[in-house]
Amino acid sequence: MRVAVIGLGTMGAPMARHLIDAGHQVTVHNRTREREEPLSALGAARAATPAEAAKGADAVLTCVSDTPDLEHVLLGPGGVAEGLASGGLVVDCSTVSPSATADIAARLGERGIGMVDAPVSGGSEGAEKGTLTIFCGGADSDFARAGEILNAFGSRITHLGPSGAGQMAKAVNQVMIAGTYASVGEGIALAQAAGLPIPELLEALSAGAAASWVLTNRAGNMVDDSYPLGFKLALHRKDLGIALDEGARASLPMAVTQTVAEQEDELVAAGHGDEDVSAVARLPKRSAGLPA
Amino acid sequence: MRVAVIGLGTMGAPMARHLIDAGHQVTVHNRTREREEPLSALGAARAATPAEAAKGADAVLTCVSDTPDLEHVLLGPGGVAEGLASGGLVVDCSTVSPSATADIAARLGERGIGMVDAPVSGGSEGAEKGTLTIFCGGADSDFARAGEILNAFGSRITHLGPSGAGQMAKAVNQVMIAGTYASVGEGIALAQAAGLPIPELLEALSAGAAASWVLTNRAGNMVDDSYPLGFKLALHRKDLGIALDEGARASLPMAVTQTVAEQEDELVAAGHGDEDVSAVARLPKRSAGLPA
Predict the structure, then answer these.
(1) How large is the ipTM?
(2) Are residues A27 and A117 in the same domain?
(3) Structural domain contains residue B292
(4) What pTM was computed for the model?
(5) Rounded Cα–Cα distance for residues B238 and A38 (Å)
């Protein structure tokens, strides 16, 4: 398949590599053009604009930072819609607004272009290993066509409904982890303030109702007060904004999600946005004067 | 061993049965005396007061509702301390204040009575099956003596430090599950408001960072808007009060725990205190006008 990949960040670059490895004919474009070079060295063609990258492609894979970026890259001047022929397919692995996604998909549809929203979970490690969980939205026929691309880097690929459903599922994921990260952080801080023996405590907690991926995989960061990536706190905050917007549209206030979003705002303002999202433990730990 | 069991509620009654099954010589007492009858039918002796139950016992197991009840049963008029000989042991499986526990243990210590705080996790099902997780605090020698009792109904028994450490570990457990229950509830409400296909969504979410015991075991309650026990929401709210008190002593504000405690207050006031704690999903679901 001839695939254009637009957006070569922490997630997009390894996705492009997996597509090359799978034997696809890949053209890459990134706003900061030097990021195209390592892919070019692996055999990818380079393009100066999204429109140029999309010219002659069967499908375009996008992986950009937020909703305005996605709209610009797809429908702005020099965007994908100017280059991709009718009958082409856009597969978007960004995490963006579900509502905006449905709107963008409709606008692409007017030009005969299909779209699958396909936000991922599993972080940079999952992208490198090609073991991402992918939440998909779009028409059945477009989802079927996207399979050849998504299989190159995803290990669990679920079709959840029409355009926007994949983004909505990702929003649900980010909501569910928000309260879990925060309350595991509060619990760790309470345990350390009380001087409990942490390894024995974590083992006992993991055997019961407090068991979670976060407890198993991120409590160590919180105990050590050291937050290597993982998944950037600032990006999780962006994702909670998307979820809170969708909640507001459904008259659905989410008190815990709102509380965690405010904590993350405080941490971003204090310069911790590039740390792993487990850094939410900083707030209760600092309040209690706990040493790192 | 001659063991007195005081407090024959949902947890205490099956504990007493397991002790009888294990061959101990059991005497029971409950404030509402009729609850002693099924245990009497199994061979337990009955006593009119905690003091009388404790007379001649090697150890006393308590399982009562809250801190004032525990103080009354142990140190009040007609309490355990009036009957239990020096050298005796109190094993308390209630969930009560860690600080008060340390104080009660010290007062019992003045009379030569040892104490192990041993709050449990695993609910009524764990008590029936004898598979409870038990968080213990107390002197090493007292913990060693308590083993013969706790092994009768516990499958994971962890010694976490001096008197109060078991209660503190339980408080940490209740803090960690608070945010997880609430944010899984918010996520389920968002997913249902968006019309996502729930079984497929839950399967995809469970494969990644959102995985938790709560998601696996309680999302179904939230989807169905039906909250059979499990573990009573009103009791979880009581436990969060204990945790928030201990947090305040350590200058440790816990914003998410506080938010969930307020939600639970609202639910208790609305008559949902006897439902499973997963009923926290009622608030976002009702706001969004989701049908049951």
Answers:
(1) 0.96
(2) yes
(3) no
(4) 0.96
(5) 58
